């Protein structure tokens, strides 16, 4: 690139940017998911867990966790020269939920990560996106040693609408995460088409 123009003489392409949120409970794997798929070194705002936070940071089931996100995680994926996907991982603890409104501004959709050992931890995220009509996919993060449950059982426990996609994933695996993100984009496109159809009929 030379003086704002490509070497071939073509003007630089201004990419379209899409924004996807990654939400869920404390210790569910949001930071890991963003890091697994980001093409850049992810921006992380992690701090060590402290004794002062012990009463509010429930580490049951994730006893080995020593850090927590206090603002957000940020990653980027270039899908094409003219299309870039930004990932924003939201903080999981209730005391940081005030940041969600800012982070969700302009979001195409969201991934709600769920851990079957602590399924109730993602209730708040599901409720948040439902109330704001932001398309979301539930990704059940398959931790080692966690019990596997039928999709219908997980759907019932989360009280999900039938049209909300639910997928099994591994937040550590790049290909698995890519499939989840493709699912978010497809679901968001489907929801947008339904809204347009409802307006025209």
TrEMBL record:
It comes from the Bacteria. It holds the Pfam family ATP_bind_1. The keyword Hydrolase applies. InterPro entries: Gliding_Motility_GTPase, Gpn, P-loop_NTPase. CDD domains: Ras_like_GTPase. Keywords: GTP-binding, Hydrolase, Nucleotide-binding. SUPFAM superfamilies: P-loop containing nucleoside triphosphate hydrolases. Belongs to the GPN-loop GTPase family. This is ATP/GTP-binding protein. It comes from Streptomyces griseoincarnatus.
């Amino acid at each position: 690139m030379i003086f704002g123009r490509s070497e071939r003489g073509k003007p630089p392409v201004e990419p379209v940017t899409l924004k996807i949120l990654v939400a869920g409970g404390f210790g569910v794997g949001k930071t890991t998911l963003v890091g697994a798929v980001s093409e850049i070194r992810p921006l992380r705002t992690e701090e060590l867990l402290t004794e002062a936070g012990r009463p509010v940071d429930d580490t049951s089931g994730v006893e080995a966790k020593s850090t927590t996100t206090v603002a957000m995680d940020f990653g980027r994926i270039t899908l094409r020269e003219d299309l870039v996907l930004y990932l924003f991982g939201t903080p999981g603890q209730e005391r940081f939920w005030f940041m969600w409104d800012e982070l969700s501004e302009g979001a195409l959709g969201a991934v709600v990560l769920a851990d079957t050992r602590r399924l109730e931890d993602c209730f708040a995220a599901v409720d948040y996106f439902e109330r704001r009509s932001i398309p979301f996919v539930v990704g059940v993060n398959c931790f080692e040693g966690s019990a596997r449950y039928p999709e219908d059982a997980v759907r019932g426990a989360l009280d999900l609408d039938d049209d909300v996609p639910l997928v099994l994933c591994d937040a550590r695996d790049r290909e698995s995460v890519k499939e989840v993100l493709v699912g978010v984009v497809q679901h968001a496109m489907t929801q947008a088409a339904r809204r347009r159809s409802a307006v025209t009929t």
